[in-house]
# Entry
Amino acid sequence: MQGIDEQRVGAWLDENIDGASGPYSYELIAGGRSNITFKVTDAHGKQMVLRRPPLGHVLATAHDMAREHKIISAVGKTGVPVPPTLGLCTDEAVNGAPFYVMSFVEGVVLDSPEKSHLLPENLRMTASEDLVDVLADLHAVDVDAVGLGDLAKRDGYVERQVKRWSTQWANSKTRELPAIEEVAQLLAANIPVQQGVAIAHGDFRFGNVLTSVTTGKITAVLDWELCTLGDPLADLGYIGIYWTDPGEPVMRFNDPSGLPGYATYDHLVERYAKRTGFDVSNIGYYKAFASFRLAVISEGVYARYLHGAMGDQSVDLEPLKLGTENLAEAALRALKGK
# Structure
């Protein structure tokens, strides 16, 4: 199994994971440029999940297994559903890179309209509301009480992010795009007052949680590699750029919303506000900020393909190019309340 030194990892699991015993089998759950996830099954059928950085990756700070393990372990002390952590290995001699192990949690990743059909229509409202309730609960966590007070700077999150992504745009753009420039200026000129400090997941959506298709409840929040401390409304705005209201044309094909039974985005925002007490009247700004960030990321990927840095030259680049432009226009609409 590529990415697993089966003999050494198996010996480490025997020694460090309570109740586990080999031989072990390994199944790839998710791979690519992000962290790689394996399902591990021991000799008695005990199932676990192992996470490690991408193969050949050299920037350890971008895929910090110890940091991710620390975050999930801390959040696991709260009511927010996460997979219980079982162990962390920082000795690269074992598997060529650090990794951690957590419990296997049942559930489905609803990351497409097709996957959405696995969830009965009568449970889609439950899932919609539980998704935003879990986010509200995450944002209510006392960062100091769970040991995450030193995770990152607490204030100025959006201001720092707008500067960062504006610089990134200047460095990666392949053409002039007036909409992006206008969005960057409007965002910088209207930085909102941060309402407290929260654990900001950074990529919170149906595609990064496990959902029970029998209860509609969120069983675990996954993919914490972008997590930091920051403005809680950034996560709520981020959901908005993936979300499609029922009956509206689907804008993004990696989210299940839009089918009959799901909540509207306005309903999610209102529910979040009632649960947290936060002022959500400026949510359009946060949607614009999320669209801007994704637009810059999309342009960076487009630039790398365009310049041959990604190797694969058979990729149709037009959707990437249009994706940046569409996200920029969406950000403008959000800022102007349209």
Residues 182 and 332 are 8 Å apart (CA to CA). The first helix runs from residue 6 to 16. The beta strands are 25-30, 36-41, 47-52, 85-89, 99-103, 198-200, 209-211, 218-221, 228-230.
